[in-house]
Amino acid sequence: MPPGLFVCGAVGLVCARAGGGADTEDRPLETPSESPSPAAREPVSERVLSVSGFSKSYEGRQAVDGLSFEVSAGEILGLVGPNGAGKTTTLRSIAGILPVQQGRITVCGYDLAREEYRAKACLCWVPDDPQPFDALTVVEHLEFTASLYGVADWRARAEELLERFELNDRRDSLGGELSRGMRQKLAFCCCWLPRPHLVLLDEPLSGLDPRGIRSAKRAIREVAAAGTGVILSSHLLELIEELAARILILDQGKRVFMGTLSEARATLAPEAGGSLEEIFMAATERPLGDEGPVR
Ligand code: ATP
């Protein structure tokens, strides 16, 4: 299974193995004793994600510390923070790739620790560097995703997504033959196919050309308008400013701000221009000389 597999969130079997590497503490494979959950298509909760007192450390070093937040159906939450703030760790834990060491995560009301299969059936995740299967074609990835999530009417939707993300003429290309941007587009198609309740996007525009960026932004707005909750993690602050209704700022594993942009302006950067960049700088301010002189 390639690391950072993007077809994820459907079943424990896939998620448990995805994202291999030193940071992955492989979870035991869950036997999906529950029948494929209808949760991915029927609204089960207005609150699609609840994270409460979540902490995670790597070999004793704290990466995320007592984090709590929620995402509602139809909301786009912007997740920002400096390098190493704990954004990816948080997303990977919500996706079920990293075990929750401390705290509680529920997706559509399903506890990720106790009802893993149902929780994962509600979400899709696009990692920052999607790695498709070398041996599957573009269309086969969509077919595979459809079978994981139990999407019966997948063909028409797959055609629509291939058209939208301009992958039609690469439909028979193998995963290993795709460029970086094409892999990203395929990840979007797979993520969008099952109409999940919650979408996790980690730097989703990296590698995309300008047309791809436009399609992706439009697609993110549309899924949110259709009721999907979205977490959009990015260092592109203009993107967050453009799409997100609320922002969550992490710094050194801790939540330093959560609220709307106007609340952030009022509390963090009333004097400055009020851009998210100013807000970000104010929220993650370091004492001068923290990084030491550049030599
Ligand atoms: P970036 O913006 O650079 O992608 P991030 O906010 O996504 O950063 P994480 O990747 O979640 O941050 O990392 C949070 C902390 O956890 C950092 O201190 C990082 O060094 C540490 N960390 C992340 N992955 C591992 C790992 N596999 N092993 C040990 N430490 C790790």
Short description:
This protein has 295 residues and is an alpha/beta fold. It is 32% helix and 22% strand.
Please give a handful of descriptors for the protein shown.
32% helix, 6-stranded mixed β-sheet, 4-stranded antiparallel β-sheet, Rossmann fold, 295 residues, binds adenosine-5'-triphosphate, 22% strand
Number of strands: 10
Give the terminus-to-terminus CA distance: 42 Å
Top CATH class: Alpha Beta
Morphology call:
globular
What is the residue-mean pLDDT, rounded to a whole number? 83
Count of helix runs:
10
Determine Rg (CA atoms, Å).
19 Å
Main sheet, how many strands, which sense, barrel? Answer: 6 strands, mixed
Q: Ions, cofactors, ligands: which are bound?
A: adenosine-5'-triphosphate
Given helix and strand content, the structural type is alpha/beta
Question: How many domains make up the 3D coordinates?
Answer: 1
Q: How is the CATH topology named? A: Rossmann fold
The share of residues in extended strands comes to 15-25%
Which residues sit in consecutive blocks of at least 5 with pLDDT less than 50?
Answer: 1-44
Query: SSE string, helix = H, strand = E?
Result: HEEEHEEHEHHHEHEHEEHH
CATH architecture: 3-Layer(aba) Sandwich
**CATH homologous superfamily - what is it?**
P-loop containing nucleotide triphosphate hydrolases
The percentage helix is: 25-40%
Spatial strand arrangement across the major sheet: 6-7-8-3-9-10
